[in-house]
Amino acid sequence: MDWGIVSRHLDTLLDQPPERRQACARELAGGDEALFQALLSMLAGVEEADGFLDSPFAPSAQSEGDAPAGVLPEGRRLGAWEIVRLLGRGGMGEVYLARRADGGFEQEAALKTLGPLEADGVQLFEQERQTIARLEHPGIARLLDGGIDEDGRPFMVVERVSGHPVDAWCEAHETSPQAKIGLILDVCDCVAYAHARLVAHRDIKPANILVDEAGRVRLIDFGVSAALESRESRPLTRGYAAPETVSTGEAGTAADIYALAASLFELLTGEPPAEIGASALSFAAWSAQGAPVRSLEEMSRGRALPGPLRADLSAILGKALHADPAQRYLSVDAFAADLRRALAHEPVRARADTLIYRTGRFLWRNAAASLAVTGLVLALAGGLGASVWQQAQIRAERDSVVREQTRLASVQDYLFFMLRDAAAMEGEGDIRSVIDQAAERMSERLAEDPETGGRVLHALSELYFHVNDYEAAEPLLRRLVAMEELPPDLRASAAYDLAQVSLRRGEPELARTQLDVAQNFWRTDTLQYRRELADSRLVEARLLRDEGRIEDAISLLQTELPEMIALNGPDFRETGVFHNDLGVMLMSAGQLEPAAEQLARAREIWRLNDLGDGPDALNTLNNLAAAEFLLGRPERAAPVFAEAVEVREALYGPSAALAAVLGNYGKSLIALSQFEDAVAVLSRARSMALEFAGAGSLHFAASSSSYMEALIAAGQVEQAVAVFAADEVYVSESEARGSPAQAAFDVGAARVLAETGQLVQASERLGRAETIFASLGPAGARYLAVIASLREQYGLSESAPSVPGAATHEP
């Protein structure tokens, strides 16, 4: 059924008296019974639809003394603002030019009023005003002031923006389709900023997108846009409002994506995407009929677009304007990314990813090069021509995959921080509770749609993994692995992730089993799953290391590293992970020099990818600094440790782990004879370790020992004695007796005792520490060397007398 015909007939019917409408519907249907019944069905909803577009800020009855039609007179004061003149009216109230009148400074602004509010409306208005006040973006008109006047009429004072509506500006400047897309991309940046702060605009349309003479976009009229919690509907602008705003009253991020797409459609074609009549019933009927929209091909301006661009934009707009919010783009960023791909002649996500489509976009992007390749194929033998083409295609495909993986990594990080902020704003629970709720909802839908539900659950399990919540990730992954109705590639991916989770949880047997499941599936098509197999070598190598086969692990990574470079290029993130893990394996095998080389290469890759302040970089920094320190190069280790401290503190704040890195940094400063700096760093490490790890921890004992060493080296012996006395109490009252923590503290205590002439007691402490460290095997060798050095420095006997409370360990 043609919705345009239904819409026009509805408007005609609504102009008739109620008693004439049924007969008129029969005439308009012209014998089409289906059309007649559809019109009757729509008419039946007139009373139900009445008022469905009313504002939640419903004005109270006006008193006789109110200004006509709610217009404020010139010179009227609202707070610090004086009315100059009326600028216009909208669905929510009036907009006035106002000037600041409190004598502070001169300023003009746009003052927006609403009708008088009921008590609950006032509270909601204040909440929303505070919400909008959080927005500080150069493309968003700033909220300057607001309040309730003496008549109970709320008002908001917004920065006055000079410019013209985007559609008028484009017409006046004869803007190209590509430039129009660029303007909408600027708006997308504004909206994405607002969404990240849980604010939806809810009334995006060309009239609310202003462009100044320099071509800069400003988004205005957030009005009383709601935070992303559920709210009642606000007045809607037909043609740009998403259908769910009618049926459910919801107008969140998905509705903003719809409105952005509708605005772009109008810029490209001159008309909005939906033909909707002027009445409220027409809008309701349009929504009830599935919210049909026109395509670019139906519009004369749309058909004038270049063929490939038109096809891509049709797919993008079709997805963004889908009647079902769940079928639209997941975020404004995703919508914008597809628009950028269309402008760059790259394959867009809204279209089926076929070889023919990718090849066509490759030829379009590289028109000149494609002509050269065509000439070469004609001039040379077919085999050579095919080889040249395949190499070009392989490079293009590799670049595309690299961009996609980078995007996915960015999305994962964005989701993590977005969910963290959402949890913080809720004031209850944390990020895990937010993911928990989503996982619970998707688990309920899994039986209805296994593939879609399975992929969403898989994504949620990866979010759990991202926040190190392996306990929550494991049951989701086990469920996915066991579901035979899921696509085999999804089950293989879930098995691989389960292997990673099991490895982190210290369950190597389960990890090995699940890794075998994934790799066996991927080996069924080594070309298609080449990347997955290469990635899985990281987990395989870690399992080999944990099985004591460190040389096999090193050999595996060295063999696979060229494959990773071939797949991703030398500077991609996954290549960096390979360099990092290979460096760690080499360190475990005592091959410190090649380990440092691999870790330094990983560090450089993080910097090239702007990942120098992320978790990957942090792991690399810790390992590289340790390798340089063990190689006897503290001048290289110290700045790397300092960078690791900065990154860890920025990411996670004070913690036991940060205390450990501070301790290592302090030790490298001691080695460089920078004793005053070492004292400051190690003092902080000691306090933090005590707070976050406890007195019985190795973190605290080691930092305390190093702190005492730095104080003595700096000539602050009395302070070292005071620290020893205080920390002796902490350690003795803990459960550190007989542990490496006790031994580490004893080394520092021995240094203080020897420095103050208590040589016998110092020797006793070192004897107890020797006993504990000797029981650790190779792991204790470095500490035993430190003890031997102290004995030599202070002339202490190597035969240590018995120390009360010393533990005896079997070697």
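(the above was protein one; protein two follows)
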Amino acid sequence: MKLVAAVRGCGTVYFALDGELPASYAVDVVSKSGNLIPYSSHLIDSLLVIAIPLLEGEDFNLSVFSSNQKLNRLFSKNFGWDEIKWISRFNYRFKSSLSYLIRDSDRQVYSNQIHVRPTILLKSADGSELICKGVICYPNSEILARLDVIDSDGRTLAYKPDFGRTNTIDMGGLKRKETSFSLRLSVGPKSYCLVANVESKSVQTGFLCFDPASVEFYSDVCSPHFYKASSPGLYSEFCAKRHDYLAMLDSCDFDTSCSLKFSIVVPLYKTPLKFLHDMIDSVLNQIYPNWELILINSTPDCVELCSALDQLKDERIKVVTLDSNKGISGNTNFGVAEAKGDYVVFFDHDDTLDPFALYRYAERIQDCPDTDALYCDEDFLNEAGEYVAPHFKSDFNLDLLRVHNYITHLLCVRASFAKELMLRKEFDGAQDYDFLLRLVERTQNIYHVPEVLYHWRISDTSTAKSAGNKNYADDAGRRALQEHLDRCGLNGTAELTDSACFYHIAYALNEEPLVSIVIPNKDSVEVLRRCIDSIEEKTDYRNFEILVVENNSTEDTTFEYYRTVSEQYENVRIATWDGPFNYSAINNYGVGLTSGKYLLFLNNDTEVIESGWLSSMLSFCQRDDVGAVGAKLLYPDDTVQHAGVMMICCRNEGEMGGPIHVFNNLDRDDPGYMRRAVISQDLSAVTAACMMTKRSVFEVLNGFNEDFEVAFNDVDFCLRVRSLNKLVVFDADALLYHYESFSRGYETGEKKVRFMREQGKLRTAWAEYYVNGDPYHGPMSTL
């Protein structure tokens, strides 16, 4: 036989051999040091195609024999990886049809073939590990034997994967099995290869190679990160399209007859002339014309700046020159005092605005005259003139604001509030944060325009480039937050964190009421035992009771455990639900048998990780404005199972939409987009796998809606909590494991019908979320 082509694919090299091939043949691929390298082989158009992982380690030998006894060698050749690279380039150039015929051909073979497919690939939070989740697909009649990891030279490494569920799937009428797996690999310069085998020797090995190029590719297409629209490539495309759109606009097409006037206040301090002109031009280019620009020059000795200001001719621009620098707060306050508009807009001297900024703000105020403040999404303007790193923000989010000033720009405030509050000099560096915290104590009619309308310039001294440039701002923000908590009568301590200008609040408990923990259960003794033992042994808050609601168990060991656990722990009771499984009805029934002031709904397949989980959830739930609190749940492989739930906007009637879990599959310590995977905040919904609520709220809502028998009952409950004008809080400090499989597979048959039916009920009950999207995660979150 002779080699007619060799091409590189994604993590795989494909060899095509031509020649007479006997009915029985064998293949050997051996590295220079004698390690066997996995392969698969199949026939295409009389060619023998052999696929091996793209290891790029030692040279190797590829041999084909006429029988399994290897009596007659049909082909044998030593290869080096550099050689293969050049052969592959040649073949793609001069044998393109053949190259694309054999490339990826192994992925089309199902009979007697194993496939290993990644579903998630990302780096751990500290960058030291590669987290891979995926599925092993193999013949339905087989049993998975193992999944090994080999290095670039073919040596087997001591990695042990975690296996999840095995599901039966249909591949074009062929029944196959899929077993999910999760694995962490040390990040290094060399390649890894996952090698899967079943018990039968007649089924060909499956492999998945992670060479550097494949890691980059899979990290992109299998990334679990939300807000992919913020990635450099996608956002660059977005900005280019935006530029083209703006260039073709005629402002005469827009109705700007509104009498509303904006006072844009800009304190100047040694402002570079280029920045000054860019800033002013962005105001002059506003679609909406009814504004005044108040420039407060605090550096009268800066001759170039003063000269440039003297040359400004637009009558809407007013220059106020101070005798000296009064600090950022003092300088800004001069401008606020001079403002004649209906709303005051705070604008930094080196930043720029999108032409639609004031127009969008005016639109909102016209539609909702009670709007007291507005803000928008923003990005950064780098030194190369590129727009980068957009911040797509939440709608007004009180608990998020209490740990980070996510609002920042472009803040527009009703003039009466701006003139009443002013900025406070003692909080310079975080004066805008202090201002916002005082503002939300007076009004929460604060609106978010979900468009990037503000460009925050990155310069050597700006906070945008590095929060560390203004270290004093961190403590000023903490002090502002502490005063806010004190004014609101909240028993909490504002604390600094490792991330500049991100804070943590340690709330103290006002009382120690009874918490009733309700756990539905059917059999699964060891799962339930792990759950209850972890609660009893690890929880520092002790005033709780546990009610296990028995639901149609059949195993004797279950009832024996019920007897022993209620003897072991005096605060554990067992109740029996006699009806068919209905999660909502079971929990409603259980609540009626408890007496706690607070209720905690908990799945039996959870396990407490840290002792403060219950007191932390209670510290949020005790607030009058909070109706429900959810925990952060992890898969057993230490990746995120739940960090809140979001609804997804349907762009047309044919889309299904949400709800989905946000930040699902991230590493447990990965901060996520804008650190929102690790900080407490308000959300639309949380999972009832671990959810606390007040009994009073539960009773007002008449408990869970029993029309939602299995799915979406928690989402419906949380959205009804929101309809009471109560908050649903994700508590990032309440940490538990949730042993729900990291790959549940697809629902089939009656389960799928029931799921679709219940999602239909959710769409009917909460259509506004499907049309308008989730207020806490904007339209760019899942783009």
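Reviewer note on protein two: DSSP finds 20 helices and 38 strands in the chain.
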